[in-house]
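Hi everyone, sorry if this is the wrong subforum. Our group has a chain we'd like a structural model of before ordering constructs, and none of us has done structure prediction before. Sequence below.
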Amino acid sequence: MEHHVITVEDALRKLSVQDFLNMGIDQIAYIKPLEAGKSEPGFAIHAADGRQISVIDSYMSAVALIHQNDMHAVTVH
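Answer:
Right subforum, don't worry. Here is the predicted structure as tokens:
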């Protein structure tokens, strides 16, 4: 019986764009500062696939909201 070994590198090369978008979709949320020049400062919360899921007034509130939903926060600059 012959075994075919697939390396992690080979497996990653076979992932589609959609596969990458779906990675962490229920575990990771990104926090991005809203553009300067808005009337009030704020932070957008995005799902791992890039969908904006909320806008909130403070960074700490964004982190708290993400953690309340059992997700990990990642900051995007």
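For your construct planning: The mean pLDDT is 84. Helices lie at 8-13, 17-22, 59-68.
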